[in-house]
Amino acid sequence: VQFGFDQAGNLFYRRSDRLLQNRSTLAWLELATGRTTPFDSPSVHGTARLSPDGRFLASVKNLGTASEIHVRDLESGGSRIISTLSGTKYGGVWSPDSRYYFWSRGSLDGEHFEVVRGDRAGGSPPEVLLQLPATSFAGAVTPDGRGLLVNFYTNDLNYEIGYLPLDEDEPELRVINGGPGNQVALDFSPDGKLLLYGDTATALQNIFISRFPDTGDRWRVGTRDMDHADYAWAHDGQGIYILDAENLSLLGVDTTNGVTFTRREVLTRAVGLRRYDAEDISFHPDGERAVILLPESGNQGAPTADVIYREAWFGDLERIMAER
Questions:
Q1: How far from 199 is each of 56, 176, 214, 227, 258, CA to CA, in Å?
Q2: For the segment 180-192, what is each residue's pLDDT rounded down to a tens digit?
Q3: I need a labelling partner for 245 at 20 to 30 A (CA). Which of 126, 157, 270, 323 fits?
């Protein structure tokens, strides 16, 4: 925010309407043709994630200082809200049986980050699985549903990957992948034996595949032109989707003996994606389509702005601080 004061001490500031600028519509993307078909009204969406069985879609709708998580039944068209607490919801991953959805949020007291689990059917409050003192995100659920990978911020000013057992009464987070740079879990292979993750130990973000549990083997995905793109395993385990600012492509992967990369095939140009990042696309298990966040027409330009003038603003500030 740009601000200043006049000679009488009154406040004026420039307010930019970036929230409106980020309005988007949920839409289907046909991978073969690049055709998009919207199926929802415009809103300020966050993450959108298809369930592993392809029947449900969980999406975050941001409402200024609060956000909601909606679960849509793609067969019936019905929708329910499974989280309405104030604050922003971050990320999101499904359990393999498509019953539970995991995400993170700031705690109500503002002291912690919480990783929570909600039942897609609703009916009960989301369950808090973990509280951490700094930013944390639900990274990926093991294909057997027994564990959750959590990307969490450390005192070393880096992200590390932790494993949280989901089948224990009092689970504790244990580090499984740390280092001098940011370690960020992205996705498991469908059989759960390989982990796709990001590592920023160097100046550029590198994407690697490691075994799970880790044996020390590493395979770097692609070449330098793929750095800073986003990645996800194909549902058949024989390829990795790569989304960058130019194209959506599929990199063939042979896991018969270790990991070998084969042909990279361009599926479609990355048209219609708002920021070209992984939160904007979720692949359907049929391998033919994906859900994307399609920018609302007219919102790709510069955000609108207003200049606000406030007299006697200091009394308002004192009142707000006294209420905290």
A1: 31, 13, 15, 11, 20
A2: 677 888 899 999 9
A3: 157
